[in-house]
Design goal:
This protein has 22 helices and 17 strands. The chain is of the alpha/beta class. 37% of the residues are buried.
């Protein structure tokens, strides 16, 4: 049984979210529009080294100082160590603030002592003039003298040449501790006390530290024996969710995609959609799986994926139809496989990302293909964008040999693949999805588990249908702007000020303005996805007239030899 932990706002902690590694953070006061989960003891934690915030249950929090060494020993990721550095920098600032407050209070005390002496000298001088008696003022007060001088009282007892003389003192003029101005106080004293309040640092020093209260000393002294992470907190508690700032009253409590954020939503009633957390808010802190990873296909997307797997410490074996493409990755530490069958046989989990359904089938069913290397327990993950029927067929043959299958098509582009910012849609073997966790963290910003095989293929085709149709509409708008004598640059600037503004829109329009259609997403592949999406609609008797119209425009662009250019080259279909 874990010992109770007394935590409060301002404490430095290690917070554990789902299955992801503990991360340093600070308990802070949540924004007013962020709802607190009901029925659970939780704290709102801001994680260092990121912009992440989340509600974390108290049993998933550990005191920072007590477990610092243990956490650093178990996690050597670059981003993790940067976050620890951020904590230490914060602690330095807090200590600097506390030291400044102590020195400020000491300085104020010294000023008050000088002011008291100054005041007494003035009073003695007045008394001596009044009585015609000369007063000897001592520069130093002992305990007896100090007690005799009741500054805030109504009398002041002064020693005058061996005799005690009692004189009334104006209370209002003597109340230094109340900060009131006496008529005899110098301008310098008034200025000093006016500009420096007790215990309050200058503005620039105040701004340099975190406004939340600190408990550095208290946390350093606390001891929590026998504290252990409680396992399976998320799975065992279907009523509890981890929330980010995106879940507020303003947003209606909806889950919003947050770049590189820790994010986990559980299975909700009646839904098979699970949005998985990616710990790439802690990207660089990823603990790579010990399983051996294979990867087949080093095209635009596959190259970026493999590069990020290698960068995060995964053990990767690669194969590509054109062997020369493997050379760069071998230099980065990958192992070369001679055939798909050899890669699958050698590795625990093999990923593939190829161009279309035919290529996906050939890779599995062809000579020296994937199927020949499948044995009981071998895992196969297809990241290609294909139709649901192809996915179902591949899943069936893999499982028939005792293998495990997961479809995991990726939404993104070459640039996003290189940056490790893909969105992964997965379906099939949920256990395999969990086994792929560190790989998905390395290559993507978010992953979704969508249930049974085929669901991910359907979702991906619909997404690409929308993207392809939008691109065709933008190209149509750009050409219409030009032929009506309007400025295309101004048109883009106006778009970027409105609700359609996005990196995608900016990038694709810049391609058109510059006439540079170097592929980030091949035109031929978006046309393929439109074709498959239309077929998906036909299979359920659902009309897709917009997608059909866009598909025709892309087909015209292909006829103009734009297949191997970027999808934005669909613009050329309108100007020829």
């Amino acid at each position: 049984m874990a010992a109770p932990v007394n935590l409060r706002v301002g404490d430095l902690v290690w917070g554990k979210l789902g299955r992801y590694p503990p991360w340093p953070g600070k308990i802070v006061t949540p924004p007013k529009d962020v709802k607190k989960p009901r029925g659970k003891k939780v704290f709102f934690v801001k994680f260092f080294g990121t912009e992440d915030h989340a509600w974390i249950k108290v049993e998933l929090l550990k005191p920072y100082y007590l477990f610092k060494e243990e956490m650093i020993r178990s996690n050597k990721g670059k981003r993790f160590l940067q976050s620890v550095d951020a904590v230490e920098e914060f602690i330095k600032k807090v200590k600097a603030k506390e030291q400044f407050q102590v020195s400020s209070q000491s300085s104020v005390s010294e000023d008050k002592g000088k002011q008291k002496k100054q005041f007494l000298a003035q009073e003695k001088a007045k008394s001596s003039k009044k009585d015609g008696t000369q007063i000897k003022v001592q520069g130093k007060f002992n305990k007896t003298d100090h007690k005799a001088m009741r500054i805030e009282g109504k009398t002041t007892k002064l020693k005058v040449e061996g005799k005690e003389k009692i004189r009334k003192v104006d209370k209002k003029q003597k109340r230094f501790n109340a900060g009131e101005k006496g008529p005899k106080r110098s301008a310098k004293v008034r200025q000093d006390q006016g500009s420096r309040k007790r215990g309050r640092p200058p503005k620039e020093e105040k701004d340099a530290v975190d406004p939340e209260p600190s408990t550095v000393k208290r946390m350093a002294m606390g001891l929590v024996a026998g504290f252990k992470w409680q396992a399976n907190q998320v799975k065992d508690d279907p009523q509890f969710h981890h929330f980010l700032l995106s879940q507020s009253e303003k947003s209606g409590g909806s889950y919003q995609a947050v770049s590189k954020k820790l994010k986990l939503s559980e299975e909700v009633a009646g839904s098979t959609s699970i949005q998985a957390a990616d710990s790439t808010a802690a990207n660089g802190s990823i603990s790579p799986t010990e399983k051996r990873i294979g990867f087949l296909g080093l095209g635009l997307m596959g190259s970026g994926i493999v590069s990020n797997l290698l960068k995060t410490g995964h053990n990767v074996t690669v194969w590509n139809r054109t062997a020369e493409k493997c050379d760069l990755f071998i230099q980065e530490g990958a192992r070369l496989g001679r055939t798909p069958a050899e890669v699958v046989s050698h590795c625990d989990i093999t990923f593939t990302c190829v161009s279309d359904p035919k290529a996906a089938k050939d890779l599995v069913l062809g000579p020296s293909g994937v199927l020949q290397g499948i044995r009981p327990g071998k895992c196969y993950v297809d990241m290609s964008t294909v139709d649901p029927e192809t996915v179902a067929e591949l899943s069936q043959v893999i499982i028939s040999r005792g293998g495990r299958f997961l479809e995991a098509p990726v939404s993104g582009s070459q640039q996003l693949s290189n940056e490790g910012m893909l969105v992964i849609l997965a379906a099939g073997d949920s256990g395999l999805y969990e086994d792929c966790s560190s790989c998905f963290q390395a290559i993507g910003k978010t992953s979704f588990f969508l249930g049974e095989v085929g669901n991910a293929a359907k979702m991906m085709l619909i997404l690409n249908m929308v993207q392809g149709s939008f691109m065709a509409t933008v190209a149509e708008g750009m050409t219409l702007t030009q032929v009506t004598g309007q400025s295309q640059e101004t048109f883009l600037e106006i778009l970027n000020q409105g609700r359609l503004a996005s990196n995608f829109l900016e990038q694709k329009c810049q391609n058109i303005l510059q006439g540079n259609f170097q592929p980030d997403f091949y035109l031929k592949y978006i046309q393929k996805d439109l074709r498959l999406a239309i077929a998906l609609g036909d299979s359920v008797n659902h009309p897709t007239p917009m997608a059909a119209a866009a598909n025709e425009v892309y087909k015209r662009a292909k006829a103009l030899d734009q297949s191997d250019n970027d999808m934005s080259a669909v613009y050329r279909a309108y100007i020829h």
